[in-house]
# Entry
Amino acid sequence: MNLIALDIGNSNHKLALLTGTPPRVKLCRSFTQIPKSIPPLPDGFDSIAISSVVPEKTFQWIRLLSEYIKTDDIKVLDRKIIRNVPIEGPDPEKVGLDRILGIIGAMVRKQPPFVLIDGGSAITFNYVDRDGIFRGGFILPGIQMTAESLSSCPGIGTVDWKKIEIKLPAASTTQQCVTTGIYLSVKGAIEIALKKISDNTGSDPGVVLTGGAGEIIKSWIEKGEYFPYLVLEGIAVASV
# Structure
């Protein structure tokens, strides 16, 4: 397989070339907004597959891709890919496309049961049981979103989410208190959720992490395996 995958998210857009079976990212470009042009990508791909949680930006990207990349095979993934992941719940059609794609990518990497934690604009927490059925999860504010929200409070100042300073058992300066609080809230929420799942199911699911903040979260909870491109890999798998 040689495919270009585009993941259009709320904060970041990722354009990648994937090769092999199962597909793996060979080259990835990340953008905070739609660029005016596309950097050169290697030739030899078969098609382009797109996933988007921001529909109004999809058509802008398609126009750009059509201008800079010569192919007529552009596929926009839709809700039909949900059939690739059995979902236990009353409203499977309301599950975010990016969550499903992350699970599809994780299923190639990890045998269930597992919990997939995607650290993006929001932190999504997705539990897949031993039968490969997605049982649900939760969504909490992402590290960057939380830092930016606190930065808007008078007297706190800018909080850099990539340079969080952890001071335990107690912090002194306002910045240390804020960043340690972010650490404790994310770490605590995830650890409580993992324990609840383990207690309620009698299982000990593995932990898989992805997304821009996934590696940081992994270091905080001190467990799991980190794969940065699970959604892109899920796009490639689902597009076949």
In short: The domain at 2-141+183-238 is CATH 3.30.420.40 (Nucleotidyltransferase; domain 5).
